[in-house]
Amino acid sequence: MKNKTINKIFGLLTILSFMLMGCTENTAYKEQLKDPELFHSAMQKLTDVMVHDIFSPPVASRVYMYPSVAAYAIIQKAYPNKYNSLEGQLNGFTEIPDATDKNVDYHLAALHTFCVVGKELIFSEDKMTEFQEDMYKSLQESGLPKKVLNASKAYGDEIAKHVLKWMDDDLYKQTRTYPKYTIKEEDKFWKPTPPDYMDGIEPHWDKIRTLVLKSANQFPAKPPLEFNLTEGSPFQKQLMEVYEKVNGANAENTAIASFWDCNPYVSHHQGHAMFATKKITPAGHWIGITAIAARQSNNTFDETINAYTNVSVALFDAFISCWNQKWISLVVRPETLINQYIDEQWVPLLQTPPFPEYTSGHSVISRAAAVTLTHLYGDNFSYIDTTEKEYGLPARSFDSFIQASEEAAISRLYGGIHYMMAIEEGVNQGEKVGNYIVKNLHTSKNQ
Amino acid sequence: MKQAFGLFFTLTLIVSGCSKKKEIPVEKAAIYFNPVSADSSGIDFINQLYHLDDLNIIEYLYYYNGGGVAIGDINNDGLEDLYFTANQTSDKLYLNLGNLKFKDITKEAGILTDSTWSTGVTMEDINNDGLLDIYVCKVGNYKTLKAHNLLYINKGNNTFVESSSEYGLDFSGFSTQASFFDYDNDGDMDVYLMNHAVHTPRGYGNISRRQLKDSLSGDRLYENKWDEGLVKFSDVTQASGIYSSVLGYGLALATSDVNNDGFMDVYVGNDFHENDYLYLNQGNKTFKESSADYLNHTSRFTMGVEIADINNDKTLDIFTLDMMPFDHEIFLKSGGEDSDKVSQIKKNFGFQTQYSRNTLQLNYNNRSFSDVALMTNTYATDWSWSVLINDYDNDGLNDVYITNGIYKRPNDLNYINYLSNVDFSKYDRTKQDEIERKLIEKMPTINISNIIFRNKGNLEFEKLTHQAGLEPSYSNGAAYSDLDNDGDVDLVVNNINQKALLLENKSHSNKRHNYISFTLKGDEKFKNPNGAKAYLYADGHEYFKELTVTRGFQSSSSHKLHFGLGNSEKVDSLKIVWLDGSTQTENGLEVNKHQSIVKKPKGTISISPVAVNNSLLERFPFFHTENNYQDYDRETLIPEKLSTEGPASIQADFNGDELEDIFIGGAKYQSPSLYFKQSNGTYKKDEKSDFIKDIIYEDVDVATFDYENDGDLDLYVMSGGNDAVENDQKLEDRIYLNNGKGHFKRLISNLIKTNGGSVSSQDFDGDGFDDFFIGNRSIPGGYGLSPYSFILKNNKKGEYNIVLKKRLGMITDSKWVDINNDKLLDLVVVGDWMPITILINNGDATFTDHTLNYGLENTYGMWNVVKILDIDGNGQKDIIAGNAGLNLKWKASKERPVKLFLDDFDKNGQLDPIIFYDFFGNYVPFASKDKLAEQLPSLKKKFLNYSKFSKINGIEDLTGMKEENVLEVKKITELRSMIYLNVGINTKEIPLPQEAQTSSVEDIYVEQKNNKTTIYYVGNFLDYTNELGQSSSNSGGFLTINKNLKWESIKKLPLPENLNARKIIKIDEKRFLVIANNDQSFSIESIKE
User: Fold this and answer.
1) What DSSP element (H or E) covers A277?
2) What is the pairing mode between strands B514-521 and B354-355?
3) What pLDDT does B24 receive?
């Protein structure tokens, strides 16, 4: 009782003192702008809008990457002794201009540029604009001077423009109208899968400009097993393994498969009615893990951006590397073969995503991200992954990022959407991509 | 509590219904129905639905399919009575007291008054006691629903005893509707029981699953053993050969002798990817599913069916219903046709072509059907259930009444993609009910008016709603009958959450129009007249009706036969063909009266099975095989394939034996073939020429000419294809030189490498050397752009000079002809998105475009072929040109053309061909939002949801660019195949008859004899994208027009249905060679009846 009263008084006092300070100078905004949670919330907003707007996994990796790089570029200007410029490190990236207005707050400018570049990539811009307005309003209430806001926004806009110009040359626009995949009759080739029989996603993603990798096929996977349905052949054995793993799935396997599903758009048909459940993508999941690691390590505002940037770059290149393999090998999904030759009623645990099987995307990108996170936060980093909680899935604990990436990889077998070869070779591919990026991308001067 | 909620809901509906009436009263149309209030009629039936956690649209996919209506005279008082089925409340039986007054006798009659889920209902006398019995279908054995189908045997005095188990008809499963009919012509009523399925398949699976039986789903056939003296139906499903599998989502059912062979057939309309079944009765208690042989395609989500003669040609036509919207906004935000890829996948699984729209399948000689729903604009009536064909205004032409409406609209794309997302943070099994309720709440609800298509003759229909007294409702089952015996047909409609409608026919024309109606009565053995055919002859008109009652959706209509007679004052005769094969003729019948016709014990037996004369059709040993290239994989917005032109062909004497040989080009990876005609009329394939080596070319056209002026015919073969870029080796044209004996060698030269369209060779300057027109089809990869076409003049040294180079359009055909009678050869050129173009020869190796001067400036079409001749014998040239036809989703006129906008709207270096067309009065983009956003990703941002997209009305709404600023705008103003008389003097249009407009006309052969012109045409075009749909309703026919421009004969050629016919060549006095794309070629004999 007594305590409460005291608290109340203290509260009142604080408000009073703030008000008093307001008369002179309210600098509470400065503290606010140091808070890495501000950046986390911007990243979370980006994720939320992406889920609403629906992006395929490779495209989603691009939506995370450009805003992060833009924010990093500004942070690097703010802490030149702590971070290296990305010029010469990311293909085609050129040094951003310095801020000329001394009123610029770099943290605010980084947040602003993140949102501006992000808006360029998503569809529902209004949702992001609303977030920005709320953020600026709250900061202004905490004393952010108009001139600082304006100067920071102006600088953020300038950098956004710079980054968008760089982005414009990544061949994304052009690849929109490249030819689609024409169905090939032979059994071994990929075919659209139930229930929606969607067209293959991004058959030309390997034409997109890589960031650190020299080319899309710098780390090719070894060729897939020879297609052969004869009983006992290596390929047939792996096919049967998928079939049996799903049929004999235990609770743990099912939990693992669901946890790493990361399918942005799963449709459910009920007669004429159709519903969609929408979730984060694989890249979204690893961005979520990055947030957990950054928070757990008490990362500062700039360190947080640095972590997001490293991970999003690794994810971006890993997707290109994987998609290059997928659309060269054109391996058919297990569901197609099982329905045709083994069991017409068989349904995989997860909905088969609409692109060729080999290599497994989640395996490649998870390992690349895990290698990057290990580089940033160390090998034995225990954490509880709560990323999927919002989508109704319970948290899971991991002892290391690598362990998590192993689980993400094997989840595709439990889910019934990948053969073991795509998982194993996917992990290898991801490892190579991750290592190359860690070796060649130097953001922090201390590392 | 629930009751109260339901009541409240009804109340609000009524209130909002009242406010609608404020609209300015519309003028009553020729057909007009007056709703009779429940207070007056005594019909207070409502099919009221109550949301239950285990029974709603998510738990049961057919939750909103509603109830049915059965009409029949249960007490033989001359007034037909009514039975309504309800889903969650009690069914009701109403006795007709006359003057449209009814009495609810449900309880007294012994009808069960529980709340089991009733679906379809039909009234038929199944035990031949002269009293109508009632059969009610039920959903049983599903979740909390427990019931079996009910058979109410009429005991007289308006009482019934439920006897389904005694008769062996107490099936319990997913029944939709039953139809009683005599499948073995033994005088008793057998029954086809149609069931639906409830599972949602993940994949399409193989059609072999049709062979697997299911205990709850899957159709059944029961044979009535009455003729053996037994009170029993026995299950003959297995022996009859019908499918009884879980693939059958049976919603529509009709039994009818569709091929007029004296045996009753069955039409089953299935929902989803399963094809409709057309079971032809083989006359030996078995059926053969023949939809693929008789129907070119069917509705996809078939929900209702009606079989009746719509065009008074005394054959039975089939009308099926689907769910295609007609409102442009609903259309743009509903899931449309399958993508081309999905339609291909379904085909690979073995399914036939289906489109998500109504079909009006016209019966042709009881041998095949042509869907003309697009041509007649009857293809889109939204989510439709019942279709009832009858003559509602007694003008002698059968009209169409359609009920529609879905209480909750689950196929709204906006809903699916943005509103239906399940909030998974709150998701767990215990909350499933709550989630489902929320999902259903969010589903869009739109009610719309039922529709009447008034038949105006000549396959033209007038669409009526409010003007005909029809107001918005959610209507399902419906039935017709002249309930007040006043000489016109009234309607009864079962609605969801709204009182049933009794629509009294108040069409004003019925006062002056005459009618006649009949009740047929059988004899001792053939007690039940079901299946009898009535042919009525009056005043030179002929009418035909078949007595069946199960029609529309979950309903059965009047047992009386009603004929509108228009102004005819008397009937000459009535011929009845009974199902036992006997025929009787009645004379001296009085009009404007209802009368009974009793079967005479000994009628004339005259079963005459239809003889199909197959000798008219022979296979010709050439098979054209297209390569697997899908243009739409590279060009998302393309409406038609440009990679399936050809085959090229030409007939000429190549070896100097005075017999006409035939050259036929190949598709890519197929070499050209040369067939030498033998003196006995057969053909021998040439094996020696150079052609065999040239398999990489797709041959799209060919011309003969004399290259060396050595008196023999050389060949110019034009290459084409849309899968290579210009100047690719594979697109190079070729010249083959003849050694005089028909042995050809390729001339080494460097010829044009483009996607060719048409080549024509003539000596236009009269210098003794053949010149050329080279017309190109497209710039590969750039649909819509006009490539250069050329006129080449022979310089007498084996070289050609370009005298004209012009972007004329997307050329398909060309002819050198002296069109203005000035002794100089002019050029007529046709193609897609261009007018019939006239290039006049100025006599100095220059040409001037005179299209405008020749009155052809509004002839922008999708032309395939052009012929020039003098039809009316006045010495002036007339043009016949084959076009895409009228049986197309696109509609075109000078005022409302189809428009093609060509520009790089998003500046990514790629051409964006965007098409808009007039969709029931509003311009809509041809490509879906998803397709457009694939081509122009910025549209995803501009149109964040489907609602905003659905408001688009033009190119500016879509792209922000004004029409006048678009780089190039092309158009189509004419889709009909046409004759243009006296071009250049006094151009006059004569469209080819409707029959020739039902598909694309691809080639024409003309013969002139005895002052008459006969136009032989072949057509269909199977290579439109799936959104536009295959043009497949007419493989070919012939038309005779006399000098006075009167059509004398309109006939079909004996060609297989669905043929992608491209060329017709007359090969001798009686026979034609018809060459098809990607198919067999045929030699046919034309019959002149």
Assistant:
1) strand A273-277
2) unpaired
3) 57
Nearest CA-CA distance, residue B1034 and chain A, Å: 30
Q: Kindly report whether the global pTM for this prediction surpasses the value 0.90.
A: yes
Question: What pLDDT, on a 0 to 100 scale, did the predictor assign at position B1022?
Answer: 96
**Residue B610 pLDDT more than 60?**
no
Contact of B92 with B106, CB cutoff 8 Å: yes
Taking the C-alpha atoms of residue B369 and residue B292, their distance in angstroms, rounded to an integer, is: 11
Quick one: tokens of B580?
């036992």
Q: What angle do CA B654, B657, B663 make, to 5 degrees?
A: 30
A371, A430 in Cβ contact below 8 A? yes
Residue from the list B209, B427, B944 with its beta carbon closest to the beta carbon of A123: B944
Q: Is the Cβ pair B198, A54 closer than 8 Å?
A: no
Q: Do B633 and A181 touch (CB under 8 A)?
A: yes
CB contact under 8 Å between A274 and B420, yes or no, is yes
Domain ranges of chain A: 2-172, 181-440
**Is there a contact between A271 and B427 if contact means CB atoms under 8 Å apart?**
no
Chain B residue nearest residue A181, CA to CA: B633
Q: pLDDT by residue (tens digit) across A24-72?
A: 578 899 999 999 999 999 999 999 999 999 999 999 999 999 999 999 9
Put simply, the answer to whether B205 touches A339 (Cβ < 8 Å) is yes
Of B206, B439, B908, the CB nearest to A176: B908
| 8 Å CB contact between A142 and A28 | yes
User: Is A123 in contact with B935 (Cβ distance < 8 A)?
Assistant: no
In total, chain B counts a number of residues equal to 1089
Tens of pLDDT, residues B675-725? 999 999 999 999 888 898 999 999 999 999 999 889 999 999 999 999 999
- Over 80: is that where the pLDDT of B612 sits? no
Cβ–Cβ gap B424/A183 under 8 Å = no
Residue in A125, A270, A344 nearest the CB of B200:
A270
**Contact flag B57-A273 (C-beta cutoff 8 Å):** yes
Domains A2-172 and A181-440 share a fold: yes
For A205, residues 6+ apart whose C-beta sits below 8 A from its C-beta are A58, A175, A319, A320, A323, A324, A327
pLDDT band at B603; cut points 50, 70, 90: low
Residues of A in contact with B428 (CB under 8 A): 392
Averaged confidence pLDDT in chain B: 93
Is the distance from CB of B1023 to CB of B1039 less than 8 angstroms?
A: no
Please indicate whether, in this complex, the C-beta atoms of A194 and B202 are within 8 angstroms of each other. Answer: yes
What are the tokens at B117?
């889920």
H-type alpha helices, A360-446: 361-377, 401-414, 420-440
Interface of chain A against chain B, CB under 8 Å?
52-54, 123-125, 173-174, 176-177, 179-183, 185, 191-195, 197, 199, 267, 269-279, 339, 344, 347, 389-393
Contact A273 B418 (CB under 8 A): no
pLDDT above 60 for A326: yes
ipTM of model over 0.90: no
Rounded CA gap, B812 and B644, in Å? 12
Exposure b/e, B938-969, CB count within 10 A at least 16 = b: bbbbebbbbbebbebebbebbbeeeeeebeeb
Provide the CATH topology of domain A181-440: Vanadium-containing Chloroperoxidase; domain 2 (1.10.606)
φ and ψ of B497, to 5 deg: 55, 35
CATH classification code of A2-172: 1.10.606.20
If phi > 0 it is left, if psi is from -120 to 50 it is alpha, else beta; for residue B741 that is alpha
Q: What is the DSSP letter of B670?
A: S
- Closest chain B C-alpha to A355 CA, distance in angstroms: 14
The predicted model gives B940-957 an average pLDDT of: 95
Cis (ω within 30 of 0) for the bond into A359? yes
The residue in chain B having the minimum alpha-carbon distance to the alpha carbon of residue A276 is B421
